[in-house]
Structure formats: structure tokens, C-alpha cells
Amino acid sequence: MNLYQATFLACLVVFIREVGASSIHSTADTSNTQDGECDLDGGPACASHASIAAIDSNGSIEISKSMNDTGTTNDPRIMSGVPFPRMPETIRAILHEDWNILDPKGEEMISTLSKIDGAVEFAHASTTFYEHLKGTFGILAAWGQPEEVKRTGLVHTAYSGDLFQFFLFDANKDEERDELRDILGEKAEALTYLFGTINRGGLCHFKDLVNGVRSDVICPAGNQTVHHRSNVGNWDVKPVEAANILMVTIADYLDQFVDTNGWRDHHQIEDGGTKLYPGSGRPAIGFYWFSAVCNGIKEHLEVVPTIFNNCEDVLSIEDEKEARDAYWKVTIEEEQLPEEEQINLLNKVVRLNNFVAEPHIMLSQIYYRQGKYLEAATEARLALEKFYTLASNWDKRRSYGHWVGFGRILLLRANRMMEKEECSFPCADPKNPLYVNYNDLNLTSLRKVVQEMNEREE
Prior knowledge:
With 458 residues, the protein is mainly alpha-helical. Helix content is 46%, strand content 5%. The strands form three sheets. A two-stranded antiparallel sheet has the order 1-2. The chain has a two-stranded antiparallel ribbon with strand order 3-4. It is globular and about 75 Å long.
């Protein structure tokens, strides 16, 4: 895990919170303060103990006094805040669907897909097939994967797959392979062809890992021979091809990570299956094999993504299940559980599976309504860091863009409350009746909301 720190510019309080392998370390005299706030009327606690915490290039906290030569602050009303993590360019491109930022042919390729009825109108796992393909492409692009890998992600099951029976292009017809090759380029089409026509379960013991036969992935140094559904019968897959196919597989499943899946649990079962779609929206189980695969293939990847601590950490299936169930308990029993029990359960989720952002979003909300704005802001920042790293969301009841946007709003509002602003949003003019509506709500420009959030980024 990376170290996540919060900058607190005003009477810096002691806030040491261990989150799995993450922690925030700071020290300060916080006498005569409550809930991480100092007396902003210029009292002695603020005047003599104001500190600034900064993050150096090594990710360490540096604390310096903000005082003049007489030992008092120049301005008793010191602004305080937890800075916004800088949104990566690729994440902003995903939110704005600026596909050419992710790939020089991004707009062209996606525009072509948007004209294929089978992509746009087919209900996939929890979205349309078209949305899923764009989502997988965005994840791989955000992970810095090479051109042929992210382009394969864009159409990964265009030729169907070993678990997916539907296809957009017929792998058995040269003219349709030529059509897809014109869209993707030669390398990406070749990798897409392998993805859709071989048995991936034979790569690096992948099937045994998913089925619990083993807990790791080991990729041999040489080629691996796996079943191919063409007349060839078998295919020799190179180590880099195997690694790239499995990397696309991780992104593919991450984008459709729901317990009840449309194509798997309904469409492909002739009698309709046993699950009512769409189900509850509970997250599926799979991070254990995502992390193990990432760890096992990293030596064969051209670019190792930053997920799972640069593919170094592996989550156990037992910890993943316990974390998911604790999170879901808070979700479905919110009205019955006291807030402290909710906090304990959510902290348990973070300890067991510290790769997901959503429990931090929940914690931030609880702390905010308790008036613990530093804690609320810190949890919101942690959530954003994890959303940006994963480039996807764990809880699919809301879209990725919505989760990121909600996390940024939480961080903005908590910061403004620490700073004693009149509104938790940059409202236009609360004293001007032209900017207060019939229900006494202060009118707020959404453009200014986003502008302020961007200005607060590190």
C-alpha cells in the first residue's frame, strides 16, 4: 500500500490512523480543541501551536511551525485542509470520455463500435456490452498498458471467448477478421483473436487458481500449449501473450464485478437460471485471483500497473469474503446498526481488503455528520487515491464517475467546514435573495464547485 497523508493547515491535531498497511502520521499540541478543530477566534491554542504538514518527495510527513519571530502566528485564522489528490490525466479522460487522450485512435475506434447494434443494444453483465467494452478499455489505459493490450480490452470478446458464447465478429471468417484488423491494427487484432479462441484456463494455472486448487499463478519461461477452438486444436502461447491476455482478463472482470451477472447467470442458461436479475448489486468475489494473477505475470508485462502495490501484494479469498460481507452488512442493515458499529465494520473492511475505496466513502459520510471534518476529509482523500489507482469501482450500484464525483464532493465539503466557510459548497451569495430559492437553499454554480475542487488539487 502507498502511504496516504493529509495536510492539515491549522492547529495541526494528532491524527494517527492505521489503515491496513496505510497510516497517517502527524504530531501537534491540540490542547483546548475538539474534533480536530482549534479556536479560530484567535485563542492561544491557535496562536502558539499552529503547524503545517507537508508531504516530501519520498512520501514522508514534514511538520513546520507557522509562526513569526515572536512565537505567534501572523494570521490567527489559519486555513486548514486536506488537499485533493491530483486526478491523473487518464482518469479525467475516462470521466469526460476523451478517448483520444487514452489512445490516438480512441475516438475513431469507439465511434465505429457505437454503430454496431449488437454492441450498443445487448444487455451484458450490468450495463450494455458497448459500455462494458469502453470500461475495460479505460481501465487498461489508466493502468498504462501498451497499445495492443488496451485495444484488445476494447473488443476483448468480439470473437466470443472460453466462457462467453456471444460474438460481434466471426473468428472463422477472414473478411470479418480483416474488418476488425482495420479497426484495431494488426497486433491488437491478433491478441484479440487469441483472447477469444483459446482456453485461458490453461494459462499459468489460471483455472486452478480461480477454482481454489492453488493459491498462486506461475507462468513458465517458455511457450504454453493450450486448447484452441479452430481446426488447429492447440496453440502455443508466448509468455508475453499469456501475460497480456490475463491482464485483459483482470480488467474485463473488474468492470463487470457484480454478484448477479446478466450474461453469465441468465442469458447463457437455457432454463433461465436460479437468480433474479439484477440481484442486489452486491460485489462479487475475485480480488483474490486478480491480485494473484497480477503478481504471477508481472515479470512478463511490458508495464506493471500500480494496482495491488505494483502487483506485489496478494489478497486471500478468506479475507476478501470477510471484507465483502462486512461491507454488505453495513449496506443492508444501516438503519439497525449504531454508527460506531458501522465504523468498526467499515474499518474491518479496510484492514482485510485495503485495495477498495468504497468503505472510505462510507466512513467519510459518517464522520462528516458527526462533525469530525478532518477524519471525513481524510477518508474521502483515501477513497479518491484508491479510485484513481484501481481506475474502477468495487461497488457497481453506482458508476465509476459517480463514485469519484461523490468522493470529491465529500472532500470539498469537509474542507470547507474545517475552514469555517458559511456554506459547505461555494454558494453564490447567501446574503443576496436573488441567489436563495423558495426553500431557502443557497444557489450554487456547478462550474465553480468543480473549479474549486480542481484548484485544491496538489
